[in-house]
Amino acid sequence: MIVEVAKTQDAEVGDGTTSAVVIAGELLKNAEGLLAQNVHPTVIAEGYQMAAAKALVMLDGFAITVKPTDVTMLKKIAETALTGKNAEVSKDHLCDILVKAVTYVTDADGTADISHINVEKKVGGSVDDSALIEGMVINKERAHPNMPKSVKDAKILLLNAALEFKKTEVNATIKISTPGQAQAFIEGEEQMVHEMVDKIIKSKANVLFCQKGIDDVAQHYLTKAGIFAVRRVKKSDIDNLARATGATLVTSIDEISAKDLGKAGLVEERKVSNDDMIYISGCRNPKAVSIIVRGGTEHVVDELERAIHDALMVVGVVVKAKKIVAGGGAPETELSLQLRKYAAQEGGRVQLAIEAFASSLEIIPRTLAENSGLDAIDMLVAIRAAHEAGKKNFGLDVYAGKPVDMLKAGVVEPLRVKTQAITSAAEAAVMILRIDDIIASSKTGAPGGGMPPGGMGGY
Question: Superfamily assignment of 136-285 in CATH?
Answer without folding.
Answer: GroEL (3.50.7.10)
